[in-house]
Amino acid sequence: MDDLRLNVGLLRRKVPNLTSAARQVGLRPATVSNLCTGKIPVGRAEVRTLVALASLADCCLDDLIIRGEKVEMIETKIKTLDLFAPLAKGGTVGLVARPGMGQIAVLAELLYRFKNEAHKTILLMPIGEHQGLNDLVENVEIITNTIEETYERIVNIVIDQDIIFVADRTHVITGHIQQLQESLQEIGSNSVTTFLLDLTGEVVDEDLPYGPLETLWQFDADLTARHRYPAVNPLSSTSTVLEGAHLDQEHFVIQQKALKLLRRYRELRSLVNVSGMNRIPTSELQTFQRGERLEAYLTQPFFIAEPFTNKAGQAVSLQNTLKDVNKIINGALDSIDVSELEYIGYLQS
């Protein structure tokens, strides 16, 4: 059952307003969202849920559920993204954040990295004026103003070249993104990985602000307030790549251990904030300290921020991330001060 996943692309095409559609048939949008991103495995879903989704998409269960297809990961070399919510190649990723949480910085950094790795990067300009938009414009190769222009530019790109496409939620609401994805599928165009963000931050509390997604990056107010960037919440961000059949076993085991540690660390941290360190049971002190170190290690200097931070940007391979995180979890770095792990790349052996 581990090799089953929802056909997210089909749902996106057939049910553009999945949030309201799901509610109308008695489904919780949060459940649908978690099924789309793989946070809830298809094998554990209720039959009535799958039947209802198939009915909404006007398809049979065989079309709704994909078996045995490998979901390929694009390695970003940003530690927290690759470890907890890997980018699904050819899928759609949604960034969910309130203004000021650093979503534009993360996206600008990714565009900078992808452009230097020979991906074609395209930005569909949003409707209206938005703060921070220049950071995206400066780091993208192609800028378009309409969905028709975007389509033309994509189909004229070399067939085997991967494309990174960025658009604001304003184009999701109008149905333009759905239109573009349908048109590209009809002609079997290049591998297009789509990034959707909400520049207004108004839909941060919605369950499905962009419709079905392969990858979800949820930004965190607490991490932002403590300047732990990138402020992507490991506990609420997820991806279809995380499903057991698609994820390397070593990655899966370390990721699950890291999530367990961070989940308990956050609980203990709440206790410390209210009552101080003395309230942590002695048996939990080690957990708190290792969680603190792991959280610090997951911060990372960005290339686009070098002029402002005077810190060189760092690209960290997934293999180095896994090795370092495993060391932290197993206590090999218990004697290292937390500050030595903040805003570094990988640990030198």
UniProtKB/TrEMBL annotation:
Transferase keyword on record: no
Residues that span the membrane, as ranges: none
UniProt xrefs under Gene3D superfamilies: Bovine Mitochondrial F1-atpase, Atp Synthase Beta Chain, Chain D, domain 3 (1.10.1140.10), P-loop containing nucleotide triphosphate hydrolases (3.40.50.300)
Family according to the record: Belongs to the ATPase alpha/beta chains family.
ATP synthase A/B type C-terminal domain span: 246-324
Keyword annotations: ATP synthesis, ATP-binding, CF(1), Ion transport, Membrane, Nucleotide-binding, Translocase, Transport
GO cellular component terms given for this protein: proton-transporting ATP synthase complex
Superkingdom per UniProt: Bacteria
One GO MF term: proton-transporting ATP synthase activity, rotational mechanism
PANTHER family assigned to the protein according to its UniProt record, in alphabetical order: ATP SYNTHASE (PTHR15184), ATP SYNTHASE SUBUNIT BETA, MITOCHONDRIAL (PTHR15184:SF71)
Protein name per Swiss-Prot or TrEMBL: ATP synthase A/B type C-terminal domain-containing protein
Organism: Oceanobacillus bengalensis
Location of this chain's protein in the cell: Membrane
Pfam family, one: ATP-synt_VA_C
